[in-house]
Amino acid sequence: MVEAGLRLAPTVSLYVNDYNAPALSTYRRVGFDQVGTYATVLF
């Protein structure tokens, strides 16, 4: 999917919660790097 996305746009990004260790591990293993941190605010 990443390769398909890169054919359409210059960057592919993912959002994952910091407590989702399995997802973070998987994304790192396939080559993603963390480049930012976001905060979600719920009212």
Give the topology.
Layout: H1 2-8, H2 21-29
Overview of this protein structure:
This protein is 37% helix and 0% strand. The chain has helices spanning 2-8, 21-29. The longest helix has 9 residues, at 21-29. The radius of gyration is 12 Å and the shape is globular. It starts with a helix and ends in a 14-residue tail after the last helix.
Residue share in helix: 25-40%
Largest sheet: none
Number of strands: 0
Low-confidence regions: none
Q: Report, as a whole number of angstroms, the end-to-end distance.
A: 34 Å
Mean pLDDT: 88
The helix tally amounts to 2
* Radius of gyration using CA atoms only: 12 Å
**Globular, elongated, flat, extended or rod-shaped: what is the shape?**
globular
Order of helices and strands: HH
| SS class | mainly alpha
Our count of domains comes out at 1
Strand content: under 5%
Which descriptors apply to this entry?
43 residues, 2 helices
Offer a quick outline of the entry:
This protein has 43 residues and is mainly alpha-helical.
